[in-house]
Write a structure and sequence with these properties.
3% of the residues lie in helices and 49% in strands. It is an all-beta fold. The strands form nine sheets. A five-stranded antiparallel β-sheet has the order 1-26-25-24-23, with no helix packed on it. A four-stranded antiparallel β-sheet has the order 2-29-28-27, with no helix packed on it. Strands 3-4-5-6 form a four-stranded antiparallel β-sheet, with no helix packed on it.
Length: 439
């Protein structure tokens, strides 16, 4: 049994650092975990944990969250024997249940598991030979349903969804010799369409022109072309209103962020971490609720948090120091307090985010309201001061961005497909996050 050496992040309110609870173990000796994906599988408004294990008879399993800090027993979703499986989630047939897609099982298959009240129907969507792979979901063609983007070996494919989990597949051409290990989406140029960025032997950008994906040689051959890149995220790091890029590799270049000059040029990079220690995984979120995007990574035996001051300057804090390799770290709000908690594995464990808001921010945040919830898409927002609204899907991708509202009670319509979304309302002094269900 390994020993956990707890590092408590005490701090005064004025420090602005996130504070986390001591680790809570979901499953011991789960060192074979290679991927953790939070998702509300049973529609109870609490985030459950999907887990991928290598060299195991049960490749994909899940643990149900009761909302009180307890997770149910491990339940198998997919059996097999592999070391390369990746997963993603989304409601592909618009029935209100989170489905699962996987790539890289023992049979080199891309599969979908349609969820009907925790009864999963498995369908093979494609088969091709690969070594490393990755998969994500996004509404590529802006038709209000989730598509699938998959990379494996030297191939990238987009599976366009008709809204009923019927897919039309398109292979995307690219001129470079690629070894894909990462795929993500972000709207680089703020045109309302999500672009695709891949990592691996190169960092490559694929521009989305109203649903048509093409390789972008200018951005792909720019300063962001970091080799061995695997953690790629788009976010406004420096608070200037455009999408910057966060890119990490396993060891050579560490973690960097690339500033968008407002014209989609990424000429300036800043080092977040260059410790030289191998990085295994990571994610981004606003952990201290100050409106700025922070970064958390698994760095060999440590979980490390980089806290952003809002201008792209980061302070490093070790959240967890163990004697065993931490292969995976991710984030989700496990107890519905609007704060992102962290989940990691050697032992499958979580730590609740106990960050306390400053008193003035707390008072204002409690007066921000969004109702009714659930809704048919017609909401009202109550805010004591002018505010800006961001809307994300459960994969963390923008659905609507920078919607400005005046103070008072305002109607707010979300003409979106029935499923769960994240709505973030930001005033000059605070940010409040809501999980809303459109029925």
């Amino acid at each position: 049994m390994k020993k956990i050496l707890p590092l408590f992040l005490f701090g005064f309110l004025c420090q602005g650092y996130a504070q986390f609870s001591a680790p809570v173990t979901v499953e011991e000796d789960s060192h074979l975990v290679t991927h953790i994906k939070p998702a509300d599988l049973n529609n109870d408004s609490f985030m459950d944990l999907l887990v991928v294990k290598k060299i195991s008879s049960d490749v994909i399993t899940y643990y149900l969250n009761d909302g009180e800090g307890n997770f149910g027993p491990e339940t198998s979703l997919d059996a097999g024997f592999t070391i390369y499986t990746q997963i993603a989630v989304g409601d592909f047939n618009n029935d209100g249940w989170e489905d699962v897609v996987s790539i890289g099982d023992a049979n080199n298959e891309l599969k979908i598991f349609i969820n009907n009240n925790l009864s999963f129907t498995e369908t093979v969507l494609d088969t091709w030979f690969f070594f490393d792979s990755d998969i994500t979901t996004a509404d590529i063609d802006n038709d209000n349903d989730l598509d699938i983007i998959a990379v494996a070996g030297d191939t990238i494919k987009v599976l366009y969804n008709d809204g009923n989990a019927n897919f039309t597949m398109e292979a995307i051409s690219h001129p470079m010799i690629e070894d894909f290990i990462e795929v993500t989406t972000t709207d680089i140029d703020a045109d309302g369409y999500l672009d695709i960025i891949t990592g691996g032997s190169n960092t490559s950008v694929y521009k989305n022109n109203e649903g048509t994906i093409t390789y972008n040689p200018t951005l792909s051959n720019s300063s962001i072309n970091q080799s061995d890149s695997f953690l790629i995220r788009g976010a406004d790091v420096d608070g200037d209103g455009d999408t910057d890029l966060i890119i990490a590799d396993h060891i050579n270049d560490g973690v960097k962020w690339y500033a968008n000059d407002g014209n989609n040029n990424f000429t300036t990079s800043q080092i977040v971490s260059d410790s030289g220690v191998q990085i295994y995984n990571g994610e981004i979120a606003d952990f201290n609720n100050d409106g700025a995007i922070d970064i958390i990574i698994s760095e060999e035996f440590d979980v490390v948090l980089f806290t952003n001051d809002g201008d792209g300057n980061f302070t490093t804090t070790t959240v967890q120091d163990t004697e065993d390799l931490i292969s995976e770290v991710t984030t989700a709000d496990l107890n519905n307090d609007t704060l992102p908690d962290i989940i990691w594995s050697y032992d499958l464990s979580y730590q609740l985010n106990n960050t306390v808001l400053a008193l003035d921010s707390f008072a204002e945040s409690t007066s921000i309201q969004l109702y009714p919830n659930p809704s048919n898409g017609h909401f009202f927002v109550k805010s004591p001061t002018p505010a800006t609204i961001q809307v994300y899907n459960l994969q963390g991708q923008f659905v609507y961005k920078d919607i400005r509202i005046p103070e008072g009670i305002q109607p707010f319509d979300l003409p979106l497909a029935p499923q769960t979304y994240i709505v973030q309302i930001t005033t000059a002094t605070t940010t409040k996050t809501f999980k809303v269900l459109i029925e």
